[in-house]
Automatic annotation (TrEMBL):
GO terms for biological process: tricarboxylic acid cycle. Its EC number is 1.1.5.4. Its cofactor is FAD. Belongs to the MQO family. This is Probable malate:quinone oxidoreductase. The lineage of its organism: Bacteria, Bacillati, Actinomycetota, Actinomycetes, Micrococcales. It comes from Microcella putealis. It catalyses: (S)-malate + a quinone = a quinol + oxaloacetate. Pathway: Carbohydrate metabolism; tricarboxylic acid cycle; oxaloacetate from (S)-malate (quinone route): step 1/1.
Length: 490
């Protein structure tokens, strides 16, 4: 039998690309291979048209700042997500300085982030949210207005055609970004290949089995010719999006027991009409409908892909049993096990609002979708917009002691006790927080190496081991430096 490779990365998306890049910086001699079932990398959740592409920093996403029963605003999760995004920015800045990301403008565009609401109750909420965030170092520069003229200056499409006297409010922050995670993934993978890693597309991992020497035997099927092959790896990362759950189940690790998945599909309305696109240079997020999952928060987004600007509105959520956009209608059913069927049934019974919302979305007509768009953009013309299918997301169903089956919104690393295999489950905020998620995975899976790696980890992410906002002066310095390196607004 041939010598096992050091690292096998399953899935050619932003997570595998980020982890592979980090490990290559930490251990340049390691043999790293990426296995992707499709014909190219970044074709599923990392594809720019399959995700929101915001650069989630909680600057505008209202679901990260819920209103508590006493009327105050909880900013805990917003600060956490922003901290995570700053880690990603630091890592990208390091790669730019090292020449591994030669052109940050190829994947990152300065795009103001806005929150926009209407109705007295929502205006009061946004005002309180602004007051809770405005003095935090990571949200410096945020502006608030209830003046329709000011809001019109920030986003000209939002106000014309709106009912006079309707209470409205918005926040605006210039330091937001639009991230093309497809372009970023390809650039990272190119860098991995240039430095010795192998990328094998059209290779599907069909089996994972632990060997007596604690390596993992991967069974692979080459999609061209349906040829089976095998490889042994010392460490395996399952970054296969929705397929991470069934692959981890095949591995047999006890840590995956009790986990299930709830798939959510979606669609966008998109316009490439440059007369319309030119009037909206921002990402504008509103409030979610009752029961809506976080990735379905409505937003009118400027998207920059391959240097061309478009506008997206949505997403309109739906349901499909597929775990990937290119997956199978049997995906959901194939992951049902004795240890997760009860948690899955409990989630179905406890999330009636979500089910009601998804049914409503599935029954919505094209005119219904256009009416939702006009709540943001009153003068929108239906002929300017066309429908496109968004990426598939799989929310985590987890069995929590004392609570039973719980539907979790976020991401979670599931790793074996010995750290030889790990996978990523979940969705939002996902790609924007790839760097901190992979740092956590490294600490979990390579605890005996972290001390030796710490100098390199600190070069890659200067705030490693601490928080960016712990010291306002340090936060200002780091944010200013990364903004300058990435050529975006501070």
């Amino acid at each position: 039998m041939s010598e096992p490779i050091d690292v096998a990365l399953i899935g050619g998306g932003i997570m595998s690309a980020t982890l592979g890049t980090m490990l290559q910086q930490l251990e340049p001699e390691w043999d790293i291979r990426i296995y992707e079932r499709l014909g190219d990398v970044a074709q599923e959740s990392s594809n720019p048209w399959n995700n929101a592409g915001t650069g989630h920093a909680a600057l505008c996403e209202l679901n990260y700042t819920p209103e508590k029963p006493d009327g105050t605003i909880d900013i805990t999760n917003a600060v956490k997500v922003n901290e995570q995004f700053q880690v990603s920015r630091q890592f990208w800045s390091y790669l730019v300085n090292e020449g591994l990301l030669p052109d940050p403008s190829a994947f990152l565009s300065a795009t103001p982030h806005m929150s926009f609401v209407w109705g007295e109750k929502n205006v009061e909420y946004l005002r309180k949210r602004y007051e809770a965030l405005k003095d935090h170092p990571l949200f410096a520069g945020m502006q608030y207005s209830e003046d329709p003229a000011e809001i019109h200056r920030w986003a000209p499409l939002l106000m014309p055609g709106r009912a006079k006297g309707q209470p409205v409010a918005a926040t605006f922050i210039a330091s937001g970004t639009d991230v093309d995670f497809g372009a970023l993934t390809r650039m990272l993978v190119d860098g991995l290949e240039e430095n010795g890693a192998q990328v094998l597309t059209e290779h599907t991992v069909t089996g994972l089995k632990r060997q007596k020497d604690n390596t993992w035997r991967l069974t692979l099927r080459h999609e061209v010719g349906n040829t089976p092959t095998h490889v042994n790896a010392k460490f395996v990362f399952v970054g296969a999006g929705g397929y991470a759950l069934p692959l981890l189940q095949k591995s047999g690790i006890p840590e995956i027991r009790g986990f299930g998945g709830f798939p959510v599909s979606g669609e966008w309305l998109r316009t490439d009409n440059q007369e319309v696109v030119a009037q909206h240079q921002a990402k504008v997020y509103g409030k979610a409908s009752v029961g809506a999952p976080p990735m379905s928060v409505p937003h009118l987004d400027t998207r920059v892909v391959d240097g061309e600007s478009s506008l997206l509105f949505g997403p309109y959520a739906g349901f499909s049993p597929k775990f990937l956009k290119s997956g199978s209608l049997f995906d959901l059913f194939s992951t049902i096990r004795w240890h997760n069927i009860v948690p899955m049934l409990q989630v179905a019974l406890r999330n009636f609002d979500l089910l009601k919302y998804l049914i409503g979305e599935l029954l919505a007509s094209r005119s219904d979708r256009e009416n939702t768009l006009r709540e943001f953009f009153p003068n929108a013309k239906g002929d300017d917009w066309y429908e496109m299918v968004a990426g598939q997301r799989v929310q985590i169903i987890k069995n929590i002691p004392g609570k039973g089956g719980t539907l979790q919104f976020g991401t979670e690393v599931v790793a074996s006790a010995d750290g030889s295999i790990a996978g990523l489950l979940g969705a939002s905020p996902g790609a924007s927080t790839a760097a901190p998620i992979m740092l956590d995975l490294i600490e979990k899976c390579f605890p005996d190496k972290v001390d030796a790696w710490k100098p390199t980890l600190t070069r890659m992410v200067p705030s490693y081991g601490s928080t960016v906002s712990a010291d306002p002066k340090v936060a200002d310095k780091l944010l200013t430096e990364t903004a300058a390196t990435l050529a975006i607004a501070r």
